[in-house]
Design a protein that fits this description.
The structure is a homodimer. The first copy, chain A, is α/β, with parallel strands linked by helices. Helix content of chain A is about 45%, strand content about 15%. In chain A, strands 1-11-10-9-12-13 form a 6-stranded parallel β-sheet, with helices on both faces. In chain A, helix 7 runs parallel beside helix 8. Strand 13 of chain A pairs parallel with strand 14 of chain B. Chains A, B: Pathway: Amino-acid biosynthesis; L-histidine biosynthesis; L-histidine from 5-phospho-alpha-D-ribose 1-diphosphate: step 9/9.
């Protein structure tokens, strides 16, 4: 039952903690089998990939037909509503602009001791993206995962999506074409992660794997982490909305339902300083659900994990929000920027009565792949950083060697590493004869 | 037997591949027990931590004495050679300077459609660092792991190091004091990772765990990844040296041994375009080993994984280096910067005949925690980024809503998400009445 909680009541802290920790992310029983699939395909290549695809997806794979052709992509583009194509293109441009601006920059300088220092970012050679089938097949996710890699300058971007059903949803392939994805394969689940991590000739391996997926995909990604990079460990998503009474309850209700309709495990919480407004939002949500104006998952999520929390003042909402470190915070108040500045832990913040999170899902520009389940305490959303790596640079001539060398020898000796000491000391001797 | 390989010979590619892939990183049998330790301490708190410490380290823990006191830190400082203290302080300053400069910066702007966009980096609340005991107990590693967290602005930096033996190596505690670490606990192995990830009252949990360790520590870190952030999956380290004949063979030999003496699984490879010089380096290495001028691990590493590779020209060394994507590349040639620019995959590059990797281990400034085992293809060294996270920002008024809204509604409808569409459409209607 959806809660109307008052932050001023004695049991509130315990209730709020239960609300935050109540959602499960269990993946029991999946790990051993995912591990077996990975090992099998690593050792057995394409033949093993084919066998697992038959077993799990009921679709056999051949090296000749596993890759989606240009003709299939063109057919998908043609099968889409032109308005959808135009909107995807619009979104792609805005996402690209944002991510290009957020590319990390190089630096190199000579310090006061004459030591050259710096770093350089380079894109990975190849990135892989998993696009799930079924309920969570969103063309917007294809854009959000592929375009940061493209903006980073990755030369080879690969996508895998379950076979069989991919032509049922042409917008997925259309988004892949608009994003400029270089290779698309009809391979699903843990076996797709194996093929991307280890390769399965003719499929070459990639360096980084991103993209959402079910428990099989998430578990397989976690297992290959270390051999390749992965974007994140994703769980069910959430929105915290901070709103005063000067909002239309029906609009805030729609915002809460927009999160809830993603997934029965999603969490939508409204913080408001006006109990009357909070009650109106609760009523508006009930109306939306009864009228069938949301997907069926919304009701499940809202009844299990939704809440309206009446705070004593809006600053208290900030404190409570930081405890949850949510994926999204939406601030619909007077002067939302001032409140946004006080938030320490959030994947993304949406500021203003006219800035719903749904715009961020599609085309505001920032990525919609964001840390969930409190991971915004330490993790960031998907960005060009995920598809680039930094090489540090150091160089020195005589001056820098003289400045750093003696301390280096002292520390090497203190650590009991004689060849480290010799590596520095022999150079000092070559330069100064001592 | 250490190899002298010629890149011009027919079997070279296979030999080189075997050389790169020959090192193991096996941690078999560790995972199940590490998982049990983590689950036990997560559920049982400090009492479970105490029990595992007794069982594994033979040292019981009490809430009163587990934390290193200020008096113990002062005693450690006093027990160190003042020259070592001065060198650690020097190193700390240079590492801090470099890492402060590499802090990512915030950005916020209004785009042509009137949409406010940006991002903001904030430090995590708490970071934990593991400092191993035994052979790999390096004060330089304490600085390299703690100072990026401090430079990032992390308010609470915690260190754990095995109990019992920590007072045998006062430089470790001295380095912790110099780095300004806030809390130090005598807890070792997987149980330390558990205490940092989940807390064990009076020890509060952290958000990110960094630092080297044995198979127990590495495995435990990988298992807690997702609940907290971890720095990397580390394996044995390596250096690739690219040197022409205008170097002193004894100096290059010392550089090779400096890497080899870290670990029997380390890898040192010299690429040179002069076979005669290559042979001289081989001889100089043999002399160093025979004369006992390195640690005993150096001989083990060199005989198993070392090599001198004679390339046809130095550009070929770049190509071969990128195939290995090594932790360190050292370039001792004429115009090393030109060669460095061509390298795509390396954790760190050292440029010039007077710039040995050993300076980077201690006090050049860049971090010495770097991706190993080919992970430089996709991973970066430790930096302030590890201890900060990015929150994306978006805001809009009427103009931006009108510009983005209709496309957002189109995409929400195409994805079958009615509440997403309503969240945007209701605002458009409120503003424009349509």
């Amino acid at each position: 039952m959806t809660r109307l909680l008052f932050a001023s009541t004695p049991h509130f802290n315990a209730e709020y903690k239960a609300l935050l920790l109540g959602r499960g992310e269990a993946v029991d029983g999946v790990e051993d089998r995912a591990r077996a699939i990975l090992a099998d395909i690593k050792a057995g290549g394409f033949a093993a990939l084919d066998a697992w695809s038959q077993k799990i997806d009921g679709v056999g794979l051949s090296p000749q037909s596993v890759r989606v052709t240009q003709a299939q992509l063109n057919a998908a583009m043609a099968a889409c509503d032109p308005k959808v194509i135009a909107s995807l293109e619009r979104a792609a441009q805005r996402i690209t602009d944002y991510h290009q601006r957020s590319k990390p920059s190089d630096d190199i300088w000579v310090d006061a001791q004459g030591v050259t220092l710096g770093w350089r970012w380079t894109p990975v050679d190849a990135a892989g993206l998993y696009a799930p089938g079924g309920m969570a097949a969103y063309p917007s996710s294809v854009l959000m995962n592929a375009l940061p890699a493209k903006a980073a300058g990755v030369a080879r971007v690969v996508m895998m999506t379950p076979p069989g059903r991919m032509h049922e949803n042409p917008a997925i392939l259309a988004a892949a074409k608009i994003a400029g994805i270089d290779e698309i394969y009809g391979v699903g689940g843990a076996q797709a992660i194996a093929a991307m991590a280890y390769g399965a000739d003719p499929i070459a391996p990639v360096d980084v794997i991103a993209g959402p997926g079910n428990a099989w995909v998430s578990t397989a990604k976690k297992l290959v982490f270390g051999h390749v990079g992965i974007d994140s460990v994703a769980g069910p998503s959430e929105v915290f909305i901070i709103a005063d009474a000067d909002n239309d309850p029906a609009i805030i209700a729609a915002d809460l339902m927009a999160q809830a309709e993603h997934d029965g495990l999603a969490q939508s919480i409204l913080f408001t300083d006006d109990a009357n407004f909070g009650q109106k939002v609760l009523d508006a949500v009930a109306t939306m659900i009864e009228a069938g104006q949301t997907g069926p998952e919304a009701k499940i999520s809202w009844l299990a994990y939704g809440a309206v929390i009446i705070v004593n003042h809006l600053d208290q909402a900030i404190t409570l929000s930081d405890l949850g470190a949510p994926e999204h915070v939406q601030i619909a108040t007077h002067n939302p920027e001032a409140l946004a500045k006080k938030i320490r832990h959030a994947g993304a913040i949406f500021m203003g009565r006219l800035a719903p999170e749904a715009l961020g899902d599609y085309l505001a520009g920032p990525n919609h792949v964001l840390p969930t389940g409190g991971r915004a305490r330490w993790a960031s959303g998907l960005s060009t950083h995920m598809f680039m790596k930094r090489t540090t640079l150091m160089g020195t001539g005589i001056e820098g060697l003289r400045a750093l060398g003696p301390s280096g020898v002292t520390l090497a000796q203190a650590e009991g590493l004689p060849a480290h000491a010799a590596s520095i000391a022999l150079r000092l001797k070559a330069v100064d004869g001592t």
